[in-house]
Amino acid sequence: MGSGSTFSVIGADVTIKGDIAATADLHVDGTIEGDIKCASLVQGESSSIHGGVVAESARLAGRVTGSITARELVILKSAVIEGDVHYDALTIEQGAQVDGRFAPNARQPVKAVPSPSIEAAE
């Protein structure tokens, strides 16, 4: 990002119901009820997101109820995640709570359905 890059802040007293799409960086301290798609997401400890998150990079410290897809993902010790996590690079601090499955982006095609067994086809 160049020196002209911008970021948006959603304050702790703000609740948004609906999806958010941002080409800039997004800092969330409030409550979001909807999906978020942005370049970079920073979530504060008191923040709550009820929906999916898609970002190039994400640093999560609050509660997320929904799936997360990010190239670079950092889950801080104060985070509580309920949903599946897809990533290229992952860092989790000791004490973080995640209730969901982890899958690297490169190994998890979006529409792939795993076959239970090759022998079952015979």
From TrEMBL:
InterPro entries: BacA/B. It comes from Erythrobacter fulvus. It comes from the Bacteria. This is Polymer-forming cytoskeletal protein. Belongs to the bactofilin family.
